[in-house]
Specification:
alpha+beta, nine-stranded mixed β-barrel, 5 helices, single chain, about 280 residues, Lipocalin
Length: about 280
């Protein structure tokens, strides 16, 4: 078994060994002050840091730290109906009587965008690399070793997906980028496959949702991210989904953190279900 397993697997093991209270203790540990991760896993940087380079995010970063999730607005009837079909693993493990969970990540289905920005790893933090290619910026994530293309050549996002004459939806959508000044990269994304969850509790996002990420390089070692969502199919108003900070990784090492399907299924069948959690995938 690799050290990098899914949170769902860790929770299932906790439930089997020590019951629900032990699982709750595990969740409390995962909610530790994010600054602890900086002290544990990221060497201290020079203080004060140097100035931010111009239009340059290249390198390895770790986060999200000091993460703040926005309040989800009221959903439309369609959004609410879909949300009510989803049962999070955390809620199932924390309830007085173990409940039902159908998070696709139980069997290591792709997290999709933007849930992958939550860095769903054992430590609830992850690393990513900004790189480059012809007419595009590439972002690669250590969690599941997935990558995104951010086109910088002035093209438009697709108006629709999954209809005649339009491209197919994607787990990580279609993304275009532009610079706002010398230190802010703005990324717009749409065309998402609707199966992945928006967050850990199962909020939906439609294929027509529009996301905006604003990465601002504050100085040599710090990036600030704000993510907003406009999804009128499922929500009654746009909102700021997340604010977070990311930090430069000394040594620039990029690790890998996999959720392995065969191991996820093994944990589901040998630990989660025997402990009382009914794991059913949509």
């Amino acid at each position: 078994m690799r050290a990098a397993i899914s949170i769902a697997s860790v929770v299932a093991l906790a439930c089997l060994i020590g019951g629900v209270s032990r699982a709750q203790d595990l969740h409390a540990a995962q909610d530790i002050d994010p600054s602890e991760y900086i002290r544990e896993g990221v060497p201290r940087m020079p203080n004060p840091p140097g100035p931010a380079p111009v239009r340059d995010f290249s390198g390895v970063w770790v986060g999200p730290n000091d993460r703040e999730l926005g309040e989800v607005p009221p959903m439309t009837p369609a959004g609410q109906a879909l949300f009510e079909t989803r049962y999070s693993y955390r809620a199932a493990a924390s309830s007085d009587s173990l409940g039902v969970a159908n998070d696709p990540f139980i069997t290591c289905d792709p997290l999709g965008f933007p849930r992958n920005l939550l860095a769903h790893a054992v430590s609830s933090r992850g690393r990513f690399i900004f790189g480059s290619g012809p007419d595009r910026i590439l972002i690669a994530y250590e969690q599941q070793r997935v990558w995104r293309e951010i086109w910088m050549d002035g093209r438009e996002l697709p108006e629709a997906v999954d209809v005649r004459g339009a491209p197919e939806s994607r787990y990580y959508g279609y993304s275009i980028g532009r610079w706002d000044g010398d230190h802010t990269l703005v990324i717009e994304t749409t065309g998402l496959d609707e199966r992945p969850w928006l967050d850990e509790v199962g909020h939906p996002r439609s294929s027509s949702a529009r996301f905006e990420e604003r990465y601002t390089r504050l100085d040599e070692h710090n990036i600030q991210l704000t993510v907003t969502i406009d999804d009128p199919e499922f929500y009654t108003r746009p909102w700021t989904w997340m604010r977070a900070n990311f930090y430069w990784v000394l040594g620039q090492e990029f690790q890998e953190t996999f959720c392995i399907p065969s191991e996820g299924i093994q944990y589901r069948d040998s630990l989660a279900r025997p402990s009382g959690i009914q794991t059913e995938i949509e």
